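Annotated sample (chain length 325).
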Amino acid sequence: MNENNSNEDTWGKDSSDVSVNQADDEKSSDYDTSEHNQYDEDNEVCEYQSRALYGVLAYRQLIGIHSGKSKGSRLKDELRLELEKVRRISLSEKKFRKATASYGTEVVSFTQRNILRIYPKQTRVNSSNYKPLIGWMHGAQMVAFNMQGYGKSLWLMHGMFRANAGCGYVKKPDFLMKNGPDGKVFDPKEKLPVKKTLKVKVYMGDGWHLDFKQKMCTVWSPPQFYTRVGIAGVPADKTMKKTKKKLNSWTPVWEEEFTFSLTVPELALIRVEVHEYNMSEKDDFAGQTCLPVFQLRPGVRAVPLFDRKGEKFSSVKLLMRFEFA
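Output written by the structure step:
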């Protein structure tokens, strides 16, 4: 009996001790878990910061291209290729034009590996712009513009960047990023064989009576519209043609077709301008657009026109047809 009582006491004591110890263990466990969680959170923060810092450094190492000129004061020295180094340089439009005149293929070779930026000369106090195509056809990645001005150069810029869904980035053609099969560097001045023929037919135009009724001629003196259609691109492809004037009509019908032979269609832009003939003064502007040839869709299209600043008119459109041969 005593043995049994002893056993009962022992079990009772053990049970009591176990109960107390469990409570103590729970408190201890709660405390330890909190500290452990905090430790894990601190580690996660540190690890995240480390990964972020590593990512920043790796990203900067990937795209960080230092500005710098090659040793030497001559323009040709600035365009010298360095196999183990990538550089970016900035040239004014005047210096760039001089570079392309004397070292055209060297400029193209430089832009295959390095970054080239062109900016307007300081004397353009009226915020005018230079022709951007000279930069694009030599592979320049950054053709800086005076965006507060407007004119034909800005129209070309708008036209180029309508490509690629207007996202602001247009990939350079392959021949500007690497040499040809024979190792030859692309030369914009070289006369190349015709690669593609573009036929453009201008059927008619409409919408001026809605967008221009307060700006142009009155209904008692209808306008005399004509359309200019041309190509901006390498020197061999550059041309401009125009339709006949259509007298006294707010909805002119021209039905005229033009053919353009293109040696470098990848760099060609089609320019379209509509003017209203004015016998005594300068012809009035009546709309324009500029489109990359390599993204034209064949067929009959309603082409919207834009004002001088590049803003689309509400109603003015041309009915045109594009055809490649």
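Annotation: The domain at 196-324 is CATH 2.60.40.150 (Immunoglobulin-like).
Annotation: The chain has a mean pLDDT of 83.
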